[in-house]
């Protein structure tokens, strides 16, 4: 009896050892254990069908199923934490269907078998092109109204090389001082047909229509003071229309002047370019400054700023 009990205990012990080694071998074949089973108990595997009554392949499936049921155990981590980290290409199809493939930003798994063979990279690129584009929600205005300090800096930095009595700052539009306004020979040489005097008056540049009597030109006078508090803006639109009408005449050439040709006359020329030529204040200053040094006083610059903002709203620039 003692020998029989010993033999029975030995058989039970062999079955337990063989079952443990069988699970280790199946884990190695399933990919969760990279090392092969080298235990000497591997030689006892042929005895499993006799003791358990299951084929070897069914034994593998049973062990794999048991391993998935024990996914929460500490000894064997789950498929999600082990297989994805070490061997993502060995993950079962069921796990791939339940778990989204986050390694591909497009959401397309490389192991899909149902993708038609006729569609290659060209079709994938076309699908990418069909994706809706993201449009920027912030629209930046193409033109920012300049500050007074920036305008003064622009006038000071980009000064002309030299100051003449008269300069052509726009086609057939001349900007000058009182000296050229009194020089009839120079006016005839330039072919001036219209004169705009922004410093008219008895105590300023007192030319007037009588001064040009006998000459083939027209006269337009404005009694303006070179004072920051003088409202020159009331003349912006009338003078701009007059200059435009004069330039539209065949062979029309216009001279706009004041005492020095840098402040009052320059201001109305800038207003003309802004109103009739659709320029911004900065563009008008750069256009005139490229041909003649100008320096409107701070009050005139503020009035031009108001005009720039109003034209910007009317034209949709602002």
Write up this protein.
Residues 164-313 form the Tyrosine-protein phosphatase domain. Belongs to the protein-tyrosine phosphatase family. Non-receptor class dual specificity subfamily. Residues 234-292 form the Tyrosine specific protein phosphatases domain. Pfam families: DSPc. The chain has 318 residues and is of the alpha/beta class. 47% of the residues lie in helices and 7% in strands. The chain has 14 helices and five strands. The protein has helices at residues 2-30, 48-52, 56-69, 79-86, 93-98, 121-129, 148-157, 178-182, 184-190, 208-211, 236-248, 264-276, 281-289, 298-315, and strands at 166-170, 173-176, 194-197, 218-221, 254-257. The chain has a five-stranded mixed β-sheet with strand order 1-2-5-3-4. Strand 3, helix 10 (208-211) and strand 4 form a beta-alpha-beta unit.
In which order are the strands of the major sheet placed? 1-2-5-3-4
Low-confidence stretches: 32-52, 73-87, 90-96, 104-138
Helix fraction, binned, reads 40-55%
Mean pLDDT: 74
Count of DSSP-assigned helices? 14
Class from helix and strand fractions:
alpha/beta
Catalytic activity: O-phospho-L-threonyl-[protein] + H2O = L-threonyl-[protein] + phosphate; O-phospho-L-tyrosyl-[protein] + H2O = L-tyrosyl-[protein] + phosphate; O-phospho-L-seryl-[protein] + H2O = L-seryl-[protein] + phosphate
Domain Tyrosine-protein phosphatase: 164-313
Biased composition (Polar residues): 95-105
Domain Tyrosine specific protein phosphatases: 234-292
Give the SSE map.
Layout: H1 2-30, H2 48-52, H3 56-69, H4 79-86, H5 93-98, H6 121-129, H7 148-157, E1 166-170, E2 173-176, H8 178-182, H9 184-190, E3 194-197, H10 208-211, E4 218-221, H11 236-248, E5 254-257, H12 264-276, H13 281-289, H14 298-315
Parallel strand pairs: 2-5, 3-4, 3-5
Antiparallel strand pairs: 1-2
């Amino acid at each position: 009896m003692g020998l029989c009990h010993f033999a029975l205990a030995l058989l039970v012990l062999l079955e337990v050892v063989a079952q443990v080694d069988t699970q280790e071998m199946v884990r190695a074949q399933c990919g969760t254990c990279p090392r092969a089973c080298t235990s000497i108990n591997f030689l006892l595997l042929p005895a499993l069908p006799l003791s358990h009554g299951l084929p070897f392949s069914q034994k593998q499936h049973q062990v794999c199923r048991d391993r998935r049921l024990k996914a929460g155990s500490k000894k064997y981590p789950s498929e999600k934490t082990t297989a994805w980290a070490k061997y993502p290409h060995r993950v079962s199809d069921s796990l791939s269907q339940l778990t989204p493939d986050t390694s591909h930003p497009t959401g397309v798994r490389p192991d899909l078998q149902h993708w038609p063979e006729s569609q290659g990279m060209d079709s994938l690129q076309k699908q990418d092109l069909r994706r809706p584009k993201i449009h920027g929600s912030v629209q930046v205005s193409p033109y920012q109204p300049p500050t007074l300090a920036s305008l003064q800096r622009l006038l000071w930095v980009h000064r002309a090389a030299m100051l003449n009595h008269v300069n052509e700052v726009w086609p057939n539009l001349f900007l000058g001082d009182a000296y050229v306004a009194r020089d009839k020979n120079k006016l005839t040489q330039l072919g001036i047909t219209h004169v705009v005097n922004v410093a008219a008056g008895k105590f300023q540049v007192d030319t007037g229509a009588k001064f040009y009597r006998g000459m083939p030109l027209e006269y337009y006078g404005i009694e303006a003071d070179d004072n920051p508090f003088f409202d020159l803006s009331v003349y912006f639109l009338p003078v701009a229309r007059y200059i435009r009408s004069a330039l539209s005449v065949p062979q029309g050439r216009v001279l706009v002047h004041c005492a020095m040709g840098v402040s009052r006359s320059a201001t109305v020329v800038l207003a003309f370019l802004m109103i009739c030529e659709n320029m911004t204040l900065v563009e008008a200053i750069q256009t005139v400054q490229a041909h003649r040094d100008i320096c409107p006083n701070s009050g005139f610059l503020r009035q031009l700023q108001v005009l720039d903002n109003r034209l910007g709203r009317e034209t949709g620039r602002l």
